[in-house]
Amino acid sequence: MTLTHSPVLFQDGIRKKKSTESDRKLLFISSDIKSSFFDAEGLAPDTIMRLIGIYKDYGVDFKKDIVPKGKLEVLFEKSLGNQKAEEKILYTSLTTSNKAISLYYYESQNSKEEYFNKEGVSLKSSEIFVSPLNGDFRISSNFGNRKHPIHGKIAFHKGVDYAAKLGTPIHATAEGVIEYIGKNGGYGNYIKIKHNNKYSTCYAHISKFSSDVKLGSKVKQGQIIAYVGSTGVATGPHLHYEVIYNGKHIDPLTIAHGNEIKLPDCELREFKLFVSKVDEIISREGASEKAI
Known about the structure:
By secondary structure, this protein is mainly β. 13% of the residues lie in helices and 38% in strands. Strands 8, 11, 12, 13, 14, 15, 16, 17, 18 and 19 form a ten-stranded antiparallel β-sheet that branches. The protein has a six-stranded antiparallel β-sheet with strand order 1-2-3-4-5-6, sandwiched between helices. β14 (189-194) and β15 form a beta hairpin. The longest helix is centred in the last third of the chain and has 27 residues, at 265-291. The radius of gyration is 21 Å and the shape is globular. The termini are close together.
């Protein structure tokens, strides 16, 4: 069930909203998960994909943890005047097979947007790498020695292969700058992203590049940079993905999720005020649903 509310959550002068009440509304959705995360009713596909990115930072395995009888709750802000505007997720709660996670949106004083638990703690950090693919894929070849599928020789595989449908979107796994884009021998169409002084990531066998990605472009974590293909030396459509740390290739599947980040005391009061107002809305709408 979808319910509308007044969008003003801050009313004590701590933070003024740029939007007016007439051009935005709040929507609360509570949905049972029948068999897939995409079963959640009332959410746009783009919003679901952003939710997937948020929960991956908290260790949710969408192939193992999402089971029937799971539950998803989302409180989001929607523009009434611009139907193409991105829905802002203010709160989300996910119940899976082995955990329950509730997260609250917060924009810090330096305009950085993050999601925190009720205590103002986030696992999000600049060194968290999200999955390069979302949706339907499988790991077809792991990092390390293997028998090459084409020439049959034993060789060290410097990355991980994600088998997926031709044209599946490829996402930048962390914020960075495009260091190389173009053809690269057996890798076919290829992108290399420099993330900081330590990390780089590489994406190979691409079918086509995103039109807004060029050499030197800055990319955001989760941004679509290309699409799965089978260019170069490949037996079928897949993404070959590499992670380089201090000049050495490392197993992409072993990258840690980073350390906890806590809001400073000067921002924690405002955040907790926001949490209390969100909880009030969620509690009210939960009671409304039970009464229906």
